[in-house]
UniProtKB/TrEMBL annotation:
GO terms for molecular function: O-methyltransferase activity; S-adenosylmethionine-dependent methyltransferase activity. The keyword Zinc-finger does not apply. Keywords: Methyltransferase, S-adenosyl-L-methionine, Transferase. It comes from the Bacteria. This is Methyltransferase.
Length: 196
């Protein structure tokens, strides 16, 4: 685990956003509870969360997509150093445009959305059809540091736009006829979404 701690620390020092420990523990527990074995992750960064998942869950594989070239290269290096190539399939692509046929797997037990927050709904609509009937989707950062509860007081225009988009996704998914959403106040707000 020391190796993973160092990766996490190094990412934070360089302002590369990686999942909080508390959130990751929740993710791992939830995937175990739902007996998930195959995960599609949107937003790999340097591979930290994918490596944590496959190293802590039995019989688990992750297919993950990262847009940024440098982060993708670093993730590849990290995955190789830990000899996790058999369990992690990583793509250097924009998750909004990559053809679904390019994915190695065509069916997943779980979807973990951890990329551009303004695009949550697009990611969800594109990838949820690949999740099995009884599968789940986990979305992180839904509170956006609490700002979502006080949008009127956000001064920065771009931040305000982003928080509004997150709120729009939250309202949309919580009121969706086909999905049941459970919110957990873990880390920055996590939702577990399943089909009704
Ligand atoms: C929060 S980080 C992912 C952290 C990672 N899951 C972890 O916890 O170790 C979000 C990543 O999504 C990537 N990203 C943003 N938009 C994307 C897109 N359209 N397709 C693929 N990756 C994207 C960003 O470059 C960034 O590295």
């Amino acid at each position: 685990m020391k190796y993973f701690d160092e990766i996490e620390k190094s990412a934070r020092e360089r302002n590369i956003p990686v999942m909080e420990k508390e959130g990751l523990e929740f993710l791992i527990q939830t995937f175990e509870e739902y007996q998930c074995h195959r995960c599609l992750e949107i937003g790999s960064a340097i591979g930290y969360s994918a490596m944590m998942m496959v190293s802590n869950i039995n019989d688990f594989v992750v297919e993950t997509i990262e847009l940024d070239e440098n982060r993708y290269q670093e993730a590849l290096k990290n995955i190789h150093e830990q000899q996790l190539e058999n369990q992690i399939e990583i793509h250097h692509e924009d998750a909004l445009t990559i053809p679904l046929d390019d994915l190695k797997y065509q069916e997943f037990d779980c979807l973990f959305i951890d990329a551009a927050k303004a695009q949550y709904q697009k990611f969800f609509e594109k990838y949820m059809p690949l999740v099995k009937e009884k599968g789940i989707c986990i979305v992180d950062n839904l509170d956006f540091h609490g700002m979502i509860f006080d949008i009127d007081h956000i001064k920065n225009r771009n931040t305000k736009q982003l928080v509004k988009k997150i709120k729009r996704f939250k309202d949309w998914i919580f009121n969706h006829d086909e999905y049941q959403v459970t919110y957990y106040g873990v880390g920055d707000g996590i939702c577990v979404i399943k089909r009704k």
